[in-house]
Design goal:
The complex is a heterodimer of chains A (about 400) and B (about 450). Chain A has about 400 residues and is an alpha/beta fold. Chain A is built from 15 helices and ten strands. In chain A, α6 crosses α7. The longest helix of chain A is centred in the middle third of the chain and has 17 residues. Chain B has ten helices and no strands. The longest helix of chain B is centred in the N-terminal third of the chain and has 68 residues. Classes of the chains: A alpha/beta (about 400), B mainly alpha (about 450).
């Protein structure tokens, strides 16, 4: 199994979300209890069952999801009961449940799931997603337009992005001996064996496609296969020292790798300890991905799911989540709110990785998607090189 | 001895004296009387047999013809005219989007060699427009004028994309005449494509109106025949009542009920169809047209804005702003569900954002700060435009769904009527035949 962030996590390591969760918990320890209810109920008539990735929302002490003043606590004011699960493991095993329930037409277990963009595209294409109840989501108007032009869901009628990130290049200048600017640098002979490739096929192949002069936002089978072949060649030839997920950060920290395809959020965490580590959007561009809220077809609490989406798209609530998880927010107005708060929040607001400017955005490519069969075939070819337990 | 003889018995065939008449307790016990009806009962029955069967047959023929014609028209609306009308709106939107993207990309070339996003948008839109032209052509019925206009659209699109490409190359290589080529391309869209699309749209509307009225006269005729048939059945029933001592003839009652059911279908089906088409037109098509107007105006605004950054003395955008404001009001006022109202509100928010950015770009251009204007146009301006455009698409998509759903409802309202207008009258005719034959049998 491969997954973006969770299933390959080494328990000794702290993921970005876990680190921030603990950091936040320390700050909030004085005002939170240690119990961790899995559900609150104020007797409201609405219930939304949310399945999300681990540590992808603000939490309090002892991972208290419902700490006072937090997002899940504040939503009580709407009279909506939230059943929040953090057990979406990855876009494969985590997704199987959704698919099997959709195919078997059994009522979905969750009213909101948060797969990555390409999985959401498949859900929509297969009719496994409910149209958004926009009548209860006035904050739908706050979706950053950059997330509205995906060919598979123009106007975001079936999904609302939760958080976004960039897969670019992180490197240790001391070990590379020179600044890196290009994806091509990862294939340079002087870095043989010291390079890490990301375990997500679409990101590794996408970045390599950029190096090949192809556009991963509009892939064809030919350009994607060419990218994959080059990735596999690099792995088999020993150019690639490790295929990683978030463990790229630890390998950079220890010097096992000199450069790696890297997630922006995890790199920011690494930079807290190692400010000398650089993160770049290569000259050719970088891959942007996002995890997005989808209401599975047949969900029983569509209106409540809409209410939840609306709540987290209020810029004030979205800013609280961004402060905590520190990924790119797809909600308009968050940057202004963070800037207005001053201090560390204002620093986040000026962080180009969280809030890239127009020039940087123009160099970000979101995987455009092939047919499900073609993508599965590509996955199958890449999976043998992906460690299941790094 | 005197022999006493018995009195002779009355002859066997002599009727006993008539019993004293008993008072009539009901019409059913009234003895047969030939006075109200003319002729014998068998001849009465035979006469009504012919009349009723003829009426039922005529009703069945006209009713089924009416419903078949109406169903066929409804299916044509659902499968051809409605998708064609939607397709033609989408086609124009695609061309307008291609136009906007190409001018934006053209503009970007002045400061940057590539504008991936806009170029991709342009290629997508022009490809979509070509596909939509073919799709509309394939589903549009036998209408030479519409097909001529669609053929012209295809030719104009080729001309347009050629001119855009020429303008792009000239612009990239800093050759003279690039601006003029772009202007010519825009003129192709505004004049040739716009005119062809308007023609096809008008033809589609005409077809929609025709299909809406198809079968109405036949249906009215069938209803009149049905009413006459029911009246005749009642008259036959009354006639039988007057000639027999039975309360009702169950088979004639059955026949009457069957004809009434068909009549009900012939009245309710077309009425439901008409209502569904009204809903589709008012809730769907009108909204589609309004939203398309907004989209067209928005595309025109964006094109004008980009041209304004290329040259001076461009048209004033105020009227376009006002037009979109008015269209948005119309859209909001026409919204008849929470979802539509929410979509209209979202659209308004996106519009205000775009309008603010567009005015800011315009102001900067007016002040002569062209670099800043271009920078804002390519960044914030494009984002705001994309937000507006995709919001428009969402509204359009909902409206299309509503329109198609109304048209489908209209088609299904008369979907089973042809079958019923044939099978039920046949059963009614059999019931009549059986009823009368059984009565006749009693006289044999």
């Amino acid at each position: 199994m491969i997954g973006r962030r969770i299933n390959n996590r080494n328990d000794r390591q702290l993921s970005r979300r876990r680190f921030l969760a603990l950091a936040g918990a320390a700050g909030l320890a004085a005002c939170t209890d240690t119990s961790r209810p899995t559900q609150f109920d104020l007797g409201g008539s609405f219930q939304a069952r949310v399945l999300n990735w681990d540590k992808y929302i603000d939490v309090g002490a002892d991972d208290d999801l419902f700490y006072p003043g937090g997002t899940l606590d504040s939503i009580r004011s709407l009279g909506v009961t939230i059943d929040y699960s953090e057990s979406y493991e990855d876009n494969y095993s985590g997704f199987d449940l959704i698919v099997s329930q959709a195919v078997n037409t059994s009522p979905p277990e969750y009213d909101i799931v948060v797969p990555t963009n390409w999985r959401a595209a498949q859900m929509i294409e297969n009719g496994w997603a409910e149209p958004l109840p926009i009548e209860v989501i006035p904050n739908h108007a706050n979706i950053d337009p950059a997330f509205l032009t995906n060919a598979w869901d123009r106007g975001s009628r079936f999904q609302m992005p939760w958080q976004a990130g960039i897969t670019g290049i992180a490197y240790d200048p001391m070990l590379t001996g020179r600044p890196l600017n290009s994806v091509e640098d990862l294939f340079a002979a002087d870095l043989a064996g010291k390079v890490g490739f990301i375990g997500e096929m679409r990101e590794a192949v996408g970045l390599t496609m950029l190096a090949n002069g192809a556009d991963p936002s509009r892939p064809t089978l030919a350009t994607a296969e060419a990218g994959l072949e080059r990735v596999i060649d690099a792995i088999e030839s020993g150019q690639v020292g490790a295929v990683t997920f978030e463990d790229f950060a630890e390998k950079l920290r220890t010097g096992e790798l000199a450069a790696a395809m890297a997630w922006s959020g995890d790199t920011a965490l690494l930079q807290a300890d190692r400010p000398d580590i650089e993160f770049i959007v290569p000259d050719e561009g970088a891959i942007q991905w996002f995890d997005t809220m989808v209401i599975p077809a047949g969900a029983e609490n569509v209106a409540a799911a809409g209410a939840f989406m609306d709540f987290v798209y209020d810029p004030t609530n979205a800013a609280r989540i961004t402060e905590f998880v520190q990924f790119m927010s797809p909600v308009m107005g968050v940057q202004e709110i963070l800037a207005g708060r001053g201090g560390a929040s204002a620093e986040l607001a000026s962080n180009p990785v969280l809030f890239p400017d127009d020039t940087a955005r123009a160099r970000l490519f979101t995987w455009g998607g092939l047919s499900a069969e073609e993508e599965t075939a590509l996955d199958d070819r890449y999976l043998p090189f992906v460690p299941s337990d790094p | 001895m005197t022999a006493v003889s018995k009195p002779p018995l009355p002859p066997a065939d002599i009727n006993p004296p008539a019993a004293a008449p008993t008072p009539l307790k009901s019409r059913a016990l009234r003895p047969r009387s030939s006075s109200p009806a003319k002729g014998t009962t068998p001849s009465f029955l035979r006469r009504w047999n012919v009349v009723l069967l003829a009426l039922v047959a005529a009703f069945a023929v006209v009713g089924s013809a009416a419903s078949l014609v109406m169903r066929s028209a409804s299916e044509t609306t659902a499968n051809n005219t409605a998708p064609a009308l939607i397709g033609i709106q989408s086609l124009f939107a695609s061309v307008a989007e291609a136009n906007t993207a190409s001018t934006a990309a053209f503009l970007a070339q002045r400061t940057d060699s590539t504008d991936r996003v806009n170029r991709n948008l342009y290629y997508d839109a022009i490809r979509r427009a070509s596909e939509q032209t073919e799709e509309v052509s394939a589903i549009f019925g036998d209408d030479p004028a519409a097909h001529r206009a669609l053929k012209n659209t295809g030719i104009s699109l080729n001309t347009y994309s050629g001119q855009i490409e020429a303008a792009r190359v000239a612009n990239a290589n800093d050759l003279p005449g690039a601006d003029e080529q772009l202007r010519q391309a825009l003129s192709v869209v505004q004049n040739d494509v716009g005119q062809s699309v308007a023609t096809v749209n008008a033809r589609g509307q005409l077809h929609l109106d025709e299909e809406r009225n198809t079968g109405l006269i036949l249906t009215i005729l069938a209803i009149i025949l049905g009413v006459i048939t029911v009246l005749a059945l009642l008259r036959a029933q009354i006639g039988l009542l007057q000639r027999t001592n039975r309360i009702l003839n169950p088979l004639l009652v059955l026949a009457t009920a069957l004809i009434l059911i068909v009549l009900g279908y012939l009245i309710i089906g077309p009425a439901t169809r008409s209502r569904a088409l009204d809903d589709a037109a008012s809730g769907g098509l009108t909204a589609i047209e309004t939203t398309s107007d907004i989209q067209t105006a928005a595309f025109e605004l964006q094109s004008e804005l980009s041209l304004r950054l290329l040259e001076e003395d461009r048209a004033d955008l105020t009227s376009l702003f006002a037009q979109v404001d008015a269209d948005l009001d119309r859209l909001a006022n026409g919204a008849d569900s929470d979802r539509e109202r929410a979509a209209a509100e979202t659209l308004r928010i996106r519009w205000v954002r775009y309008q603010n950015v567009a005015r800011s770009i315009e102001d900067q251009a007016d002040r002569g700060d062209l670099d800043a204007a271009i920078e804002q146009f390519r960044g914030e301006g494009l984002a705001a435009f994309n937000g507006l455009n995709t919001a428009i698409e969402s509204v359009l998509s909902d409206n299309r769904t509503q329109f198609i759903s109304g048209v489908d409802r209209a088609a299904s309202a008369v979907g089973t009527t042809p079958f019923l207008t044939i099978i039920l009258p046949v059963l009614a005719a059999l019931a009549i035949l059986l009823a009368i034959q059984r009565r006749l049998g009693e006289y044999r």
